[in-house]
Amino acid sequence: MRGLSLALTVLLIAGLASAQKHVSFSAPDGYRLHGDLYGKGLRGVVLAHGGRFTMESWDKQARILANAGFRALALDFRGYGQTIAGTQTTDDKSYPDVLAAVRYLHATGAKSVSVVGASMGGDAVADAVMQSRPGEIDRTIFLGSAGGNTPERLKGRKLFIVSRDDESSEGPRLPRISEHYDRAPEPKKLLVLEGSAHAQFIFSTDQGARLMQEMLRFLSEP
């Protein structure tokens, strides 16, 4: 644990210098998407933001991932940020955006691709996992997300992360996320962090370093 913590500290510092470039690509339905790409590794990671964020919100985490050897692609969902709203902006149309990002990384040299979905982005990621072809998505992190409505259909390795006292207008999130975790097939893990921060907001709390450490650990496992 101490070794990984030290490595994370080094990555946090080194990550500030990691290169980043803007990319664009098309979803299967022709919708033009935008994202920020970090790193050149053979292991890809798609970062799907929550409803109150855009792709820029992943900048610090994407730089850390890049310096750990990953190729990280932070995506703007349709109707957010630089992906200008069009005729299809509802959340149930966002899974093609995640799949397009996954396929972009594969097409540009990534040998494996994992996905991280925060809050709203977690639902889109869950849909993408269920719609994906065998081998397209290696593993999945649901951050403050229950992983869609049918967790029984989720494929691959899964990590659910939630703050213990995270609440929405409908009440605490932990019970529903725990229920969906129980229903999801193996292999899977559940991590409950202290505090009440939701999804990407956790990175700005005293749990932020541990969250990044656990994400790196899960994404790096053989």
CATH class type: Alpha Beta
> Could you give the distance between the termini?
17 Å
Which value, in Å, is the CA radius of gyration?
16 Å
Q: Helix count, per DSSP? A: 6
What is the number of strand segments?
Answer: 10
Strand residue content: 25-35%
Largest sheet: 8 strands, mixed
Mean pLDDT: 90
What topology, given as strand order, has the largest sheet? 1-2-4-3-5-6-7-10
Order of helices and strands: HEEEHEHEHEEEEHEH
What does this structure look like?
The protein is of the alpha/beta class and 222 residues long. The protein has one domain: Alpha/Beta hydrolase fold, catalytic domain (Rossmann fold). The chain contains 6 helices and 10 strands. The two termini are 17 Å apart.
Topology:
Elements: H1 2-14, E1 20-26, E2 32-38, E3 43-48, H2 59-67, E4 70-76, H3 95-107, E5 112-118, H4 120-131, E6 139-143, E7 157-163, E8 167-168, E9 171-172, H5 174-183, E10 188-193, H6 208-220
Parallel strand pairs: 3-4, 3-5, 5-6, 6-7, 7-10
Antiparallel strand pairs: 1-2, 2-4, 8-9
Helix pairs in contact: 1-2, 3-4
